[in-house]
Amino acid sequence: MRHILSYSFYEQSTLSLARNLLGKQLVHESNEGHTIGRIVETEAYLGVMDQAAHSFNGRRTKRTEIMFGPPGVIYTYVMHTHCLFNIVTNKIDVPEAVLIRAIEPIEGESLMVKRRGPARRGVTLTNGPGKLTKAMGITLDDYGHYATESPTYIIDGPEPSNISIGKRVGIDNSGEARDYPYRFWITGNKYVSRSR
DNA sequence: AATATGATGTAA
DNA sequence: TACATCATATTC
Question: What family is reported (predicted)?
Answer without folding.
Answer: Belongs to the DNA glycosylase MPG family.
